[in-house]
TrEMBL record:
SMART domains: S_TKc (SM00220). It is an enzyme of class 2 (transferase). The lineage of its organism: Bacteria, Bacillati, Actinomycetota, Actinomycetes, Streptosporangiales. This is non-specific serine/threonine protein kinase. CDD domains: STKc_PknB_like (cd14014). GO terms for molecular function: ATP binding; protein serine/threonine kinase activity. PROSITE patterns: PROTEIN_KINASE_ATP, PROTEIN_KINASE_DOM. Residues 10-265 form the Protein kinase domain.
Length: 459
């Protein structure tokens, strides 16, 4: 295949891939200085009107739906040889198929992806569209300053809900396609996509594409650590009888979110986590018990303001906080992946007057989040945080003490104050990411907390 030089004003960089009907190129928009993906209808289909119509239909749906969870279409035009092309968001991190090719995903990552895919499909359903071909290779991944974002793509088979009865052609991909999709002339509704969401979920958590229906091997038989609620959800999506499935993608997504929030999946969550909604609530009884077990004791260093040292569940991190802040503790670690960093579950903790309101922008609690990163050399604060927690000006500074070197950024009127810091101990190796929120701005307390944080070598 010869590489064209340009498509209109877009300069072609390289070939990204070819599907059954189209070829996709990486190109550069020199005017806006941004990479784009250009999808061009294949020559052999260029004169087939129904295929052309489908191509244009895909571009229109994506343009009109215009969502951060879907590939966005920025432009549509026609080449001199009359082949249409659409200019889309470039997904620079491949697809979910690449991830799952390496095996089943960690549960927290699988649930995060399923929430995002569910959100993308929900947008389509609200737009009156059935995707009809949801599968891992049609879920693309794009890096963002705060992590990796899912983009549901390839609406080549998509159909308007109100035209979806009496289809003549069967369409979809075996393994992901609902039983009703393989019936010629069968009528469809959004529950066909719910089947596919269940099939994708099955593959993400087991590493195996589900067999053709009826499904006899439950995900928990292949991976016993899967929460029963997730096993149930996947099996209900894959029911032969669509009446037994969740009614739409929104219901599926809600149920995935509820599983993510279950107490046994709790991990501490930094403010900067981009999934604002998916927030685990701490079990207060467990918190009280953990506080006792952790041996919380007032610090002797601050007689005028009593400080307490609180460790995370592994004992690798501990923070000294004003006693009054340590009403609730979530000590069970965090997933740096949520902030776009590498590595699975890591030591981390959240200590606050009310952990459930950690990301409340109007009436924040006082507290501290601390999370460990196995440090890629040269990593710094701006690679972790994205944007600003509020519109007030911020001040950055370097910190260099006996225990830490690093960067600190503070917003003094957020409301209250907000501090983010990335600190390294003298022997390096790890990076401690900290967030400190204070209802009233008292800089000396922030200073004490930064000074008092500790990382012990894991035994
Ligand atoms: N926006 C995009 N950014 C980056 N890569 C993309 C983008 N859209 C498609 N691709 C890649 O281009 C290739 C071709 O995509 P296309 O949607 O034409 O077909 P497909 O989904 O691979 O196959 P089929 O259409 O036959 O199901 C795929 O490898 C896909 O990952």
């Amino acid at each position: 295949m010869t590489q064209p030089e340009t498509f209109g004003r877009y300069r072609v960089v390289r070939h990204l891939g070819s599907g059954s009907f189209a070829t996709v190129w990486l190109a550069h928009d020199d005017r806006l200085d941004t990479p784009v993906a250009v999808k061009v209808l294949a020559e052999n289909w260029a004169h087939q009107l129904d295929v052309q119509e489908r191509f244009l239909g895909e571009a229109r749906i994506l343009r009109q739906a215009d969502s951060r969870w879907l590939v966005r279409v920025h432009d549509l035009d026609v080449l001199p040889d009359e082949r249409p092309y659409m200019v889309m968001t470039y997904a620079d991190q491949g697809s979910v198929a690449d991830l799952v090719a390496k095996g089943p995903l960690p549960l927290d990552e699988a649930l995060r992806l399923l929430t995002e895919i569910g959100q993308g499909v929900t947008i389509l359903h609200r737009h009156g569209t059935i995707h009809r071909d949801i599968k891992p290779s049609n879920v693309l991944l794009q890096s963002s300053p705060v992590g990796q974002r899912v983009l549901v793509a390839d609406l080549g088979f998509a159909k308007a809900i109100d035209e979806a009865s009496g289809f003549t052609a069967a369409a979809g991909t075996p393994g992901y396609m609902s039983p009703e999709q393989s019936v010629v002339g069968g009528d469809l509704d959004v529950r066909a996509d719910v089947y596919s969401l269940g099939a994708v979920a099955y593959e993400l958590v087991t590493g195996r594409r589900p067999p053709t229906p009826p499904i006899r091997v439950r995900p928990r038989q292949l991976r016993p650590s899967i929460p029963p609620a997730l096993d149930e959800l996947i099996m209900s999506c894959l029911a032969d009888d669509r009446e037994e499935r969740p009614r739409d993608a929104a219901t599926f997504t809600q149920r995935v979110r509820a599983i993510r929030m279950a107490p046994n999946l709790i991990s501490a969550v930094p403010w900067w986590l981009r999934h604002q909604g998916a927030w685990a609530r701490a079990s207060l009884a467990a918190v009280a018990a953990l506080l006792l077990l952790a041996g919380v004791a007032p610090s002797e260093a601050q007689p005028e303001l009593s400080f307490t040292r609180v460790p995370d569940a592994t004992g690798e991190i501990s923070v000294a906080v004003p006693q009054a802040w340590a009403r609730q503790v979530q000590p069970s670690g965090w997933a740096p992946r949520e902030l776009g960093q590498t590595g699975g579950q890591q030591p981390g903790l959240l200590v606050a007057t009310d952990v459930t309101r950690w990301r409340d922008t109007e009436s924040p609690p006082s507290g501290i989040f601390a999370g460990l990163l196995r440090d890629p050399p040269g990593h710094h604060l701006d690679q972790i945080i994205d944007g600003a927690p509020c519109s007030s000006p911020s001040r950055g500074q370097r910190l260099s003490t006996e225990h830490w070197t690093g960067q600190v950024r503070q917003w003094h009127d957020c409301p209250g104050s907000f501090t983010a810091a990335a600190l390294r101990p003298p022997d390096g190796g790890v990076l401690l990411y900290l967030e400190i929120r204070q209802r009233e701005d008292q800089p000396h307390i922030v200073q004490e907390i930064l000074e008092g944080a500790r990382v012990e070598a894991a035994t």
